[in-house]
Amino acid sequence: MSQATTTIDDAGSTRGRVFRAKAASFIQRQGALVALVIVCVFAAMRYEDFITERNLLNVLRQNSMLGLVALGMTFVILTGGIDLSVGSLLAVAGVIAANLAGRGMLLAVVAAVAFTTVLGLINGVVIAKARIQPFIVTLAMMIAARGLALAATGEESVRVDRLSETFTWLGQGKLGPIPIPVIVLLIAYALGWVVLNHTRFGRHVYSLGDNEEAARLMGLNVGRVTLGVYALSGALAGLAGVILASRLGAGQPVAGTGWELDAIAAVVVGGTLLTGGQGGVGSTLVGVLLLGVIFNIFNLEGTISSWWQWVLRGIFLLVVVVIQNRLSSRK
Amino acid sequence: MEGITKSFSGVTALAGVDLTLERGEVHALVGENGAGKSTLIKIMTGAYQRDGGQIWLEGRPVEFRSPEEAQGAGVVAVYQEVNLLAFRTVAENIYLGREPRRFGLIDWKRMNADARALLQRLGLEIDPRATLGSLNIALRQMVAIARGVSFNAKVVVLDEPTSSLTEHEVSILYDVIRRLKAEGTAVVYISHRFDELYTVCDRVTILRDGKFVATHALANLEKIDLVCLMLGKQRDELRKGTTAFEHQTATAAASAMAAEPLLRAENLKRGRKLNHVTVEAGRGEIVGVAGLLGSGRTETARAIFGADKIEAGEVYLEGKPLRLRAPGDAIDAGLAFLSEDRKAEGIIPELSVRENLTLAALPALTRFGIVSRARQQEIVERFIKRLGIKTAGPDQKIRELSGGNQQKVLLARWLCKNPKFLILDEPTRGIDIGAKGEIQALINELAESGLGVLMISSELEELVEGSSRVIVMRDGERVAELRGKEISQDSIIRAMAEGSATGDATSNEAEDDGGV
Amino acid sequence: MQNATEINRVKGKPGLLAGLAALGPTYGALIALVLLVLLNVIFTPNFAAWTNFWNILLQVAPTMLVAVGMTFVIATGGIDLSVGSVMAIASALAATNLDRGVGVAILLALAVALCVGAFNGALITGFRIQPIIVTLALLIAGRGIAQVISNGGQLIPFSNPTFEYLGKGYAGPMPFQVLVMILVVAAAIFIMRMTSFGRYVVAVGGNEAAARLAGIRIHRTKIMVYALSGLLAGLAGLIETARLGASDAAKVGLYIELDAIAAVVVGGTPLTGGRATVAGTLIGALIMQVIATSFNMLLIPFSWSLVLKAAIILIAVYIQRPKVA
What we know:
The structure holds 3 protein chains of 3 kinds. In chain A, 79% of the residues lie in helices and 2% in strands.
């Protein structure tokens, strides 16, 4: 009897804290969404052209490739890791796909994505087995993969065979009014959401980033999860590279430089903590779109020079992180 | 478990320890720091591999190569730092790695229902969908226990389960333990709080310095005897002369106290760890602080030194209040603090003896930002000689030194600053006998030269022979003060075990002092 | 007495071996560098020429300046990704202010670079945000700021022999920027070894809790480290600008942070902090430069040198990783 009341008492004293924690974590998780809505409303009121099918689909299409890279990055960051190699892997995939485009879209896509998946897997193996920090391992992969892409092409871009229309369809085609890259993006995020929330692998990704030591003590196979996320990140970077090559009609060995930083920024802005364990694919999609819409506004405005855009993006990233940090340290 | 042996890089952590658990028994495991409790538990639950000995479970020899295997066999540990995932839900924490699935996807419904049923079986009303981090520590601990039970646990190890619980919460825990017991589960209970041991445990196994001491039924073991067994003392033993302290006379202490105290810390308060603790010490006095682990002795030292933020309280040095925002402030005022955990808070492993020794003194050795190598060298050489630090040279990395010599370097780090007041937390822990004596003699010498010293120690001889006064702490409170002739191992043990020093005339005085 | 004899006994033993061991992981990097140079002297035509020697040093100088600052940052356990953008800011500031006098332009550029670095440090310590994020934000914003300063990212050419001496001048046979690099490296080694600041840097990186209990002001140390990194990046930016005879805010120092981190890591300063070797960083930077130069001279595509560099980074870190018992 006395024990039952004790429990209820505890629940009561916890309730206020739970509420505050929930409110804080809502802002932390959904703050980007709130910001996205505000920015969109602002844009809709100010620019006639904003809420047009063309413009909105354009925003989505332009950001679809970064979105795929950021999706993979989300998995990596959720485990508490980081993947600097995505930009280079994207270039590698683009080059491979452009080379093979003449032999059919399927072969080109599968070969390119398979190759970058293997490179991602190598990242994971070195991180898990040799116990070197992800930062260094993926930095090395970033440099090496870029070298591979440049060496294989003689530092020139590879034109896609003009006859391979199925391949260019991937980046340039539409299904009804919707560009194929946007469809790929949405499917990837839907799958990513299911994997993260409804499979053991997904939950273990969270667990690893939450508290690696505890996860280990609880019997989790940490190595396997690590391999999985870096392979996934490699695969998605590869997919993004294939689409980019298809859009451009060429595989460029210099494509994707600096994308790792954009992807990290999108993930962080979305609300996923760099320390791991908190966040999700939905947040990342919001982060990607938020940065994309802001960029779109800059374009619609027309008077904000690209350099000011960079300044604002940097400040924006900083402000978001400071706010997140305040909220999470309060807990 | 029989004859368990384990050593780490040559240092023996466990030497032939036995432990037998019955079904439905709550078995206490006690011992001071370094006694080998954690090591034993980790071997039992597969986190470490044993070097020797054998483990049987229900009559069969078993071999656990990982926590996973131990869990599978029904042996689970709930660690004192609750090792769970703060951002995941209660149900996820319970079923991590064994999530029920349908068509390859996690069956959240079933997982939550199972978790709810399990928690109810333990008499707990916790929402399985709540994030673990939103629960208070007590409930988190219950979740950890529930996770253990969900493996059909035959043995559940609770490592200091109450160290951060309120009394209310402790009673919930007791209830859960009773239910486990009724189901026939064996519970290993590690705690430093004697009241708890006597409330919930049936038998107790005592470890000391990695060795098995004894297993007793608690019902017929007095608290005093338990403390004696833990510390390795005979009840009526009053050995003298084993330390290098020259016993200070009562008159020295009295004259020290007559004058204004050199340092006075008043009403220090920090959560439940420090409950209005007051400490004072005069010039030339060594004030001992006794208390078992978790009694608040280290917290007192850290609060005085400005290393932890305190909620209330003042520290006065030579009658003037100190503003302590960071340890740097305390150092500037003339305080020095030799911390308990040499490795985590003392040495900077990659740096040389020279640099470690002069780290705190650098500002005084620096002109225009440049460290005077000559003066640094002079100090280092002087202290290496004076303290007899055994090193290949000042440029040897400190991590390569023995524990005793590391400690001497850290002591020298403070002495070369000519502090007014020295706080020593376990100054001779983990140090070989020779170095121990040297350090004790040095502390004595320092006090004679006029320094005030606050010395925390779990070595009773050290306190008895070294201190002019001993303050005894328990559960974050100062419970007794012993002076002059009152100081004996027996009286300290009594105070630690029972909260006040019983005995001739002592009790009154102790209560006066302790009741601040 | 017994102690004294013991010390003497141990002291007598070491000599050369201990000297090499004291170099620690740098020792391996040094051997790698010597091997690389020897191989090149044998197999690469014209490698062993004075012009090539100066050329290698000339090309490594800006990276090395940045890497020196990075060594200090990494020694505290941090990282600074913003260095390339700081270079660009300094470059743009100097180029747009040259008409006010060379001294003013240089001082202004360096002062702002220092402030940007200090700002990094203040954000990192004040808000407790990971260094990688703070400096990433500055990397993004800084490049934009540099382009704003240079009137919209235009290439700003100039003709100012005094300023250009920084990048094109010679002191005897030695290019002036090599002289600057040598002075900075020497000063950095001196600061790291001889000043209390240098010792605080490694102490903070080695054991922050212990350093705090020893009275070291952690925040102040970290802010100074990032300020130093900013200052040296600014200097590198000025030299690059002087060498080009123009400020190109979009390109100056692009991705130099990666080269600098690689040089630091290959040189034997662990990313976890607590240990630092400026000399090692110099060796690391030279290894990378020798590879690039020799590939160039052997007409092997530049791209393959990237693969080799990556391999060297991984091998270096793998060898130096802390041994787990």
